[in-house]
Amino acid sequence: MTAPALVDFDEVVERFDPMLGLEVHVELNTNTKMFCGCPTTFGAEPNTQVCPTCLGLPGSLPVVNRTAVESAIRIGLALNCEIAPWGRFARKNYFYPDMPKNFQTSQYDEPIAVNGYLDVLLDDGTTVRVEIERAHMEEDTGKSLHVGGATGRIHGAEYSLLDYNRAGVPLIEIVTKMIPGTRERAPEVARAYVTALRDLLRALGVSDVRMDQGSMRCDVNLSLSPRDSGILGTRSETKNVNSLRSVERAVRYEMTRQAGVLLAGEPVVQETRHFEEAGGSTRAGRRKETAEDYRYFPEPDLVPIAPPAEWVEELRGTLPEPPWERRRRLQAEWSLTDEELRDLVNAGALDLIEATVAAGAPAGEARSWWVAYLAQQANSRGVELAGLEITPAQVARVIALVASGSLNNKLARQVVDGVLAGEGSPDDVVAARGLAVVSDEGALVAAVDEALAAQPDVAEKIRGGKVQAAGAIVGAVMKATKGQADAKRVRELIIERVGA
Amino acid sequence: MSADPVTPGGDTGITRDEVAHLARLSRLAVTDAELDVFAGQLEVILSAVSRVGEVAADDIPPTSHAVPLQNVFRPDELRPGLTQEQALACAPAAEDGRFRVPQILGEEA
């Protein structure tokens, strides 16, 4: 069966209203799993972070991780949700081998947090309020490796291999209500929401929020209604959307695909689809099972959770300054334009600059180091800014050494290079590489005189009023001093010595 | 919970179709003849259990747990688990430190 052709995005928007819903799963960064004391570290040897409980062995009993519940409540509060005064876990029964228990312990109709919202800032400065339906606690599943078959996918595989290190890692699922009225901005709104949520979770310190490692994952629900009809369309749920860019692409693709189906007079099938990173498209997966098929029932092995009001209020007191308010504050403090601020945010430089300023550097200098020289270094090394082997405190120290006249900018960059190369602190590098501005005035004067004597024609030009010609002499002096002179002082000395 | 496939509390009249649905979810192969047998048997079991409903008064809330406890938590502290060898010791098949399971058909992981 060939699928109907995709419809041009502008035409989709002209004829249909997209209805958007987003489900985000986030792995908590607790030390241990949701219901047992196994570690949660990413990347360990397979099946080395398991115990009878997360392997579902007979006789084992789960016990809830208190810190995970606290994180769930803090997430709920940060999303302006009501915290349920009482709720139970439920068993979600299904038949994949990715949970050895044959069920996933989740929350069903009694989620810990409900009815919140997140205000999301778009690129042009408008704000869209995304309503949160619920946030609930559950556990992650194991990882399957499908062997045989060409694609590494489940279809065509001869058998599968299971690693249960991830099975039982605390997971929070955050579900939005349908977001209406986004029109042509649906892809942008989806991306902006996931970005804002990621920043919020990072500020809360509850998760690594690494989409590339799967500690944050997004499912995109999308349906189309004929424009202004108010009739709800059938939705698809696209999984495997593993980057912010993919969130945007998946929404856009589903809009153009579903419009094609509808305009061909066919019904949109309610199904799970998988996002294909390479082509930016989605492919059909399994047909959506109805809620009854999971045969949810209350988990008898776990007692209800009834967070006392005092506990919730205590946790409310631990909420950080929300990222968007922090940005507004820093923008004012550092006198940034909207565009400058956005560039810093996108470069992941905000935290680093703030920490550098906290370590005593002026904001302008701190910003300039991180967005210019250090950004280049990160880029050429293929790492994130935060992944550079230099701390904000070390950057602040380099800035202080320049301010005190011990280093010029060129030497300062060499000091940074040394730190990045693992040669120790800025002071270690200065000492080991012998990097310091020549402050011996006599030595500088001698170097200037020597350079002037070597280029008498240039000296004559300067004397004749062509001050810009001094550059050649400055260059010669810098070379003679191996770059360790203060260029500004050298220039002053040249003018003095030629007697211009 | 609202999702129980069968609601206790009276003559449930479980049908062959419901038995077939449950069998499919449980990955059990059930013959046509067995559907009738099991429908009858499940009917008896459910009506026996549903007699509880006859004594439940309005002032008795439904119970999901046998013990009157709530908020039982564990500190977020590591506890020793199993080694890979121990974990795989009872596995019918293993490969590369992982549990090996037969082909999973019909559904996407």
UniProtKB/TrEMBL annotation, chain A:
Catalytic activity: L-aspartyl-tRNA(Asn) + L-glutamine + ATP + H2O = L-asparaginyl-tRNA(Asn) + L-glutamate + ADP + phosphate + 2 H(+); L-glutamyl-tRNA(Gln) + L-glutamine + ATP + H2O = L-glutaminyl-tRNA(Gln) + L-glutamate + ADP + phosphate + H(+)
Segments passing through the bilayer: none
Enzyme Commission numbers on file: 6.3.5.-
SUPFAM superfamilies: GatB/YqeY motif, Glutamine synthetase/guanido kinase
Keyword set, alphabetical order: ATP-binding, Ligase, Nucleotide-binding, Protein biosynthesis
Annotated Gene3D superfamilies: 1.10.10.410
InterPro entries: Asn/Gln-tRNA_amidoTrfase_suB/E, Asn/Gln-tRNA_Trfase_suB/E_cat, Asn/Gln_amidotransferase, Asn/Gln_tRNA_amidoTrase-B-like, GatB, GatB_Yqey_C_2, Gln_synth/guanido_kin_cat_dom
Record-annotated Asn/Gln amidotransferase domain positions: 351-498
Keyword Ligase: yes
Function: Allows the formation of correctly charged Asn-tRNA(Asn) or Gln-tRNA(Gln) through the transamidation of misacylated Asp-tRNA(Asn) or Glu-tRNA(Gln) in organisms which lack either or both of asparaginyl-tRNA or glutaminyl-tRNA synthetases. The reaction takes place in the presence of glutamine and ATP through an activated phospho-Asp-tRNA(Asn) or phospho-Glu-tRNA(Gln).
Oligomer status and interactors: Heterotrimer of A, B and C subunits.
Family: Belongs to the GatB/GatE family. GatB subfamily.
Protein name, UniProt field: Aspartyl/glutamyl-tRNA(Asn/Gln) amidotransferase subunit B
Species the sequence originates in: Pseudonocardia xinjiangensis
Gene: gatB
UniProtKB/TrEMBL annotation, chain B:
Annotated InterPro entries: Asp/Glu-ADT_sf_sub_c, GatC
Catalysed reactions, as listed in the record: L-aspartyl-tRNA(Asn) + L-glutamine + ATP + H2O = L-asparaginyl-tRNA(Asn) + L-glutamate + ADP + phosphate + 2 H(+); L-glutamyl-tRNA(Gln) + L-glutamine + ATP + H2O = L-glutaminyl-tRNA(Gln) + L-glutamate + ADP + phosphate + H(+)
Signal peptide: none
EC number from the UniProt entry: 6.3.5.-
Pfam families found in the cross-reference section: GatC
Keyword annotations: ATP-binding, Ligase, Nucleotide-binding, Protein biosynthesis
Broad EC category: ligase
Protein purpose: Allows the formation of correctly charged Asn-tRNA(Asn) or Gln-tRNA(Gln) through the transamidation of misacylated Asp-tRNA(Asn) or Glu-tRNA(Gln) in organisms which lack either or both of asparaginyl-tRNA or glutaminyl-tRNA synthetases. The reaction takes place in the presence of glutamine and ATP through an activated phospho-Asp-tRNA(Asn) or phospho-Glu-tRNA(Gln).
Family indicated by similarity: Belongs to the GatC family.
Subunit details: Heterotrimer of A, B and C subunits.
Protein name, entry field: Aspartyl/glutamyl-tRNA(Asn/Gln) amidotransferase subunit C
Organism this protein belongs to: Pseudonocardia xinjiangensis
